[in-house]
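Before we proceed, please read the two lines closing this message. Tell me what the C-alpha cell row says about the fold.
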Amino acid sequence: MLTMKLVAISQLDFPLWARFRSEIYPLLSEEFNTTEMSSILRNDLWHCWFIENDDGERIGLVELSLRNIVDGCLSSPVPYIEGLYLIETQRGRGSGARVIEMIKQWCYKYGYTELATDAELTNVRAQQFYEKIGFEEVDRVVEYRFDMKEYKP
C-alpha cells in the first residue's frame, strides 16, 4: 500500500488543479474555475491540497473551506470538504478513506470538533462512501436560486 500526503496547492499548480476541478465540477467554465482558484488562494478560510503518493505522483485533490454555519453542526467554524477527487485508478482501493483520515487528523490538530461535506442527491456512490467511513446524513434539501441580473423592478 502506497503512503499518501496532502501537499498545499500554489499558483504554479493551476493547470493540474484546473484539470482535477473539471472532473469534480464539469459544468463550470474554465474562466470561472480560474477566477475561483485565484480567489480561493487568497482566502484564509480555504485550504486546498493535492493528494500525493510516495512516488510524488499527484493522484487527487481536496478543497476544504471553513464555514461559519453548516446544517446539522453545532460548532463554528466547521471544516467543510467542498471537493474531493481521486484519479480513477485510486478509487475503490481505500485511498479515499485514507485521505479522509488525513483530513480528520488536520482538523484534530487545529482543534475543530466537527467535519462536514455534502454529496449531490444523484451521487449515490459518494453518499455510500461517506456513510461507510462514518459520516452521518443530517439533511436533504432542494436548493433554489434567483438570478438578480434578470430582475427589473
The CA atoms of residues 96 and 119 lie 14 Å apart.
